[in-house]
Every structure is written in structure tokens, then in C-alpha cells.
Amino acid sequence: MSSHRSAAWPLSWLAMALIVYATLYPLSGWQWPERQAFSWMLPKLHREFSGDLASNLVGYLPLGAILCVAHLRSGRSVPVAALATVLTGTGLSYTLELIQYTLPGRVPSVTDWVLNTLGVAWGALAAVTMHALGLIDLWHTVRERWFIPQAGHGLALLWVWPLGLLFPPPLPLGQGQLWPHLRVLLVEWTAHTPLQRWLLPDDPLSLWAGTGALLAGSWPALLESLTVAAGLLMPMCVACAMARPRRLRLVLLSGAVLVGVGVTTLASALNFAPVHALTWLTTPTVVGLMLGALGAVALMGLSRSLCAWLGLGATLALVVMIHLAPTDPYYAATLAAWEQGRFIRFHGLSRWIGLLWPYAALVWLVARIVHREPRAHASAQAGSNA
């Protein structure tokens, strides 16, 4: 049995999560619809906007392409893969349209369902066309030569990493500050219960203070530099833990630096106006980028297993240090209310990607450490590294 894992499946689940989140946002105000207001036959709206029509069509197109590729990579025939993709997409769309009956301000529409189905079908058609041209098989051949067979989820992590940077983290490249957000959610969920007293401090504003106050007068510049360096090394270690040739490592490491700097600059420009695009490049941040680049040089000559161990250490260090950084609730509220930022961040979904990405990387790195490569692959590493 082949141990090859495709990146298309985790990307398909991510595309579905994005669609569910965007369709049901803000995920609040649920109410059971009145019997006369609910209908299994979706209604046709009297007034529809061209922007909504285009978004319904384009929003499902990537899901159709990625899901169809996942079915094809799993060995299914072209008709079966295309049919399964369209049925999954249209079923998901119809279910979400029915769920919108329970959300005030959201209106189900048969037009949305038809356009979503058409978008999935077009995406599946694009995947079938790429398969007929041999592009999918070509990518599979290249991937087997460049990466280990278990690289599917790792490649999906690398594809998703830039999306988490679109919502500016507390420090540049400092993803993973999950506990303050999780604690606020727990406080909301346990409202008017005895459990809330255990979670809610005497001063509610200290929920967002975290442990950053402990370092207020200490070494914040060094903390920021080390956090930036760890945030840059984290995806680099993931890449080196699955890449075969060292020349490919050079491309991936250089690409990580360019993507990290470019997406952070783009996020600053979109959220704070273009004139402030480079204000995040402070002296501690530049020092952190240089430390991360020096670490990338060291990764060039290390084995994949050692890169996985170093990635585990860098991710744990990032999670600890980013929780030492203070969080500003007013800054987060301002970003959440800004329509321009909300558009680029898919209603806050990129924030959750940034919060959860280090923990997903931890799981993948631990799996890579526990799962040893077959001896045939390990012995071929010396030849591929030459």
C-alpha cells in the first residue's frame, strides 16, 4: 500500500471550512424558524446583486477544483471524481442555504444554490482538464522527486501559512496567541454559570493583558526579535522536514522569507493604509528576520528528522513567547470592524488560521518524528542531497 499522501484532501477541508464560515458569519443570533417561514424549496429573491452572484459562483470554484483533484489522486476515475465533487458541493450549498433560515439577516436563495453548484462544476471541469493534459500526473512525478511521500499535510500547511498572516498578529510573524481568545470564548460560553467565576478575573480587562505585563520593563526588544525569528523558522523547518534535494531547500527557505515579508507588508497596507505598509519593520523585527535567515543557513545541511526536531522546538518557543506579548483588545476590535480588512481576512477566518497554525504544525512535526521514513527513502537521501 502506498504511503503517499495528497495535499488536496486537507486543502479541500479547509476550502469547505472557509465556505461554511463565510456563509454563516457572524455565527450568532441563532433562532428556530417559524413553520410558515421554512420551506424545503428554496425561494427566489425578488432583488439580487451582481456582486453577490459573482461571489457565489467564484467562491465554490476552488472547492470544486481541489476536491476533484483529491478524488483523482485517490485513484477514482474521471466520471466518478467529477460526479462525487459536484454532489458534495451542491449538497453542502443546499445544507447551508437551509441553515440560513435560522440566522437573522441571512436569506436563503435558490439562485445562490444554483450558482454554487455551477461554480463547483466549473472547478471540477478545470481539474478534469488539467488531468487530461497530464498536469496532475506531472505534479505528482515532480512531488515524488522533490518531497517525501508523507508530505501532503505538510505542503497544505505551507500553502495555508500566508493566509494566517493577513490578520496582523501581536508581533510580526508571531502566530499562535490562542489562550486570550480561547479564554474570552470560554467566559462567553459559561455566562451566568458557576464556571465563569473560575475564568473571569476581578478586572475583566486583564483577560487581554496576558503575561505580557511581566515583561513590560524587562527585555521586550529581545523578546520581539526572538519571536520574529521563531515565527520565520517555523515554516522553514516544516519545509526542510519533507524536502529531498538541498537545492529545493534553498528555494523553499528563500521563498519563506519573501512570502513572510511580502504578506506582512500587504496586510499592513490593507489594514492601516498603504502609507503604513512598512511600519512593522522596526529594529527588533529586522534583527529577528536576520536571526531567522541565519537559522535557514544552518537548516541547509541538516537531516530531515533533525529539522523536524528543530521545528518542534521553534514552534514551542514561539507559542511560549507570543503569549508573553501583550494583546490590545481595542486594536483587535478596530480591525474586526474595518470593512476593508474584513474583506481581505474573510470575516476573521485568517485570524483563526494564524491562531491555530502553530498547533497544527506541532501535530505534523510530532507525526514526522514518530513516523520514521522507510530505509529505502532514507538511504536515497544522500544521493538526492548531492
List the helices and strands and how they pair.
Elements: H1 8-24, H2 50-73, H3 78-99, H4 110-132, H5 135-146, H6 152-164, H7 179-189, H8 195-199, H9 220-240, H10 246-272, H11 283-299, H12 304-322, H13 329-337, H14 339-344, H15 349-370, H16 375-379, H17 381-385
**Number of structural units classed as domains:** 2
Order of helices and strands: HHHHHHHHHHHHHHHHH
DSSP summary: helix tally: 17
Overall 3D geometry? globular
Mean pLDDT: 80
Structural class: mainly alpha
Report Rg: 23 Å
For the termini, the CA-CA separation is 29 Å
Strand content: under 5%
Tell me the number of strands: 0
Task: Note down, in words, how this protein is organized.
By secondary structure, the chain is mainly α. It folds into two domains: 8-146, no CATH class; 158-385, no CATH class. The chain contains 17 helices and no strands. It has helices spanning 8-24, 50-73, 78-99, 110-132, 135-146, 152-164, 179-189, 195-199, 220-240, 246-272, 283-299, 304-322, 329-337, 339-344, 349-370, 375-379, 381-385. α9 (220-240) packs across α10 (246-272), α9 (220-240) runs parallel beside α11 (283-299) and α12 (304-322) runs antiparallel to α15. It is globular. The model is unreliable at 210-218 and 376-386 (pLDDT under 50).
